[in-house]
Design goal:
The structure is a homodimer.
Chain A (H helix, E strand, L loop, with lengths): L1 H4 L5 H13 L5 H7 L8 H14 L2 E4 L4 E4 L11 E6 L5 E5 L1 H13 L3 E12 L1 H6 L3
The structure holds zinc ion (ZN) (4 copies).
Chain A binds a DNA duplex through helix 2 and helix 4.
Amino acid sequence: MRSSEHGALTKNQELVYDALTDAKGPLSAYAILDGLREHGIRAPLQVYRALDKLLEFGLVHRLESLNSFVACSHPECDSRETMVFTICEKCGKVSELADKAIAGQLQSLADLDHFALKAATVELRGFCQACQTASTQ
Amino acid sequence: MRSSEHGALTKNQELVYDALTDAKGPLSAYAILDGLREHGIRAPLQVYRALDKLLEFGLVHRLESLNSFVACSHPECDSRETMVFTICEKCGKVSELADKAIAGQLQSLADLDHFALKAATVELRGFCQACQTASTQ
DNA sequence: ACGCATCTGTTATACAATAACATCGATTGC
DNA sequence: GCAATCGATGTTATTGTATAACAGATGCGT
Ligand SMILES: [Zn+2]
Ligand SMILES: [Zn+2]
Ligand SMILES: [Zn+2]
Ligand SMILES: [Zn+2]
């Protein structure tokens, strides 16, 4: 049971987390809602509250440019760390990458600007390898 | 007249662009709408259509994590270039920074993943210099 | 004039997120 | 046991963000 892996996920938190891990791709809150109606989830708030906690636990990331959420695919991912997401504009595939160099560069840039950096959103748009070879576009 | 500066902005495009340049901060589409009702703008689509064009022209940037828009403060900013935005979570101040090193690092990371990079969203959250010195938090 | 593209105006709708309030259940302290 | 408390839940209503669909207007090249 997944809750034992992460301490104490509540029923709704686990439903939402399982929906995201099963999805193999980003899901909007309302897509999650639709997928869980048969499990007793009936209102957006039930999903958003669970997502808030999962984000807090670092089990889930929010993709700002898609208004969607993904399960963290980087088991050791410290939420404090800066993650980089690639988003394929053709097939929708999302990859989560960790890169210490970029995190450091962003910190340096923030320092130059005397900006106290708390969190960073880095989302790359383009075409994944499969979609490049599949077409000449 | 601003339209002469940028070729051929239409009336609505110029209204929206002027609203953003006057604002000295990010505005949501509906905030723009409210500010332009007296100028004949009555529906969200009028704003969104103008914003789409301004984004295409590179005159405006979208802040994904705020669902808001800012006029480009970087006159020579090539829209192809990767821009970095700092967003103060206390006062809302937004700064637009250009950093070739980060753009290069992101390109390298994309290359490693065989990802054809088209555009990058980089948004840093934290506290601006003024808000740091103003409080101990 | 005609075809075509672009911009425009309007209504209605879909999608995303939060507010407000009542309830339930487990835990703590007496 | 029992009140107090805290976190999670359920529900309704509302706000905020963005697009669909359709019609009309404008400009331009032929
Ligand atoms: Zn992660
Ligand atoms: Zn792809
Ligand atoms: Zn710019
Ligand atoms: Zn500030």
